[in-house]
Amino acid sequence: MTYDDRPRQYQGRRSTCRVPFCASSAALMACLLPGCFRNAGTGGTGEIVVPEQRLREVATFTPQPATQPTTRPTTVPLAQVELTIEQCRERALHNNLDLRVELLNPTIARQTLSEDQARFEALFVTDASFSTNDDATASQLSNRQSKAMNIAPGVQIPLQTGGTLSLSGDASRFETNNSFSTLNPAYTSDLRASISLPLLRGAGVYYNTQQIRIAFYEYEATQAGTKLEVIRVLTDMEKAYWRLYAARQELIVRQKQRDLAIAQLERARRQVAAQVTPEVEITRAESGVADTVEAILTAENNARDVHRELKRILNDPAFGVESDTIIIPASPPTAIQYGVDGQKLVQAALHDRMELLQAELRIAEAVSSVRVARNDLLPLVTLAYQYRQNGIGKTLNDSFNVVERNHFSDHAVSLHLEVPLGNEAARSRLRGALARRLQQLATREQRQVQIEKEVLDAVDNLQLTWQRILAAQKRVILNARLVDAETRQFQLGLRTSTEVLDAQTKLADAKSSEIRALTDYQIAQVDIAFATGNVLGASRVVWEPAKVK
Question: E-assigned strands of 361-483?
Answer without folding.
Answer: 380-393, 408-418
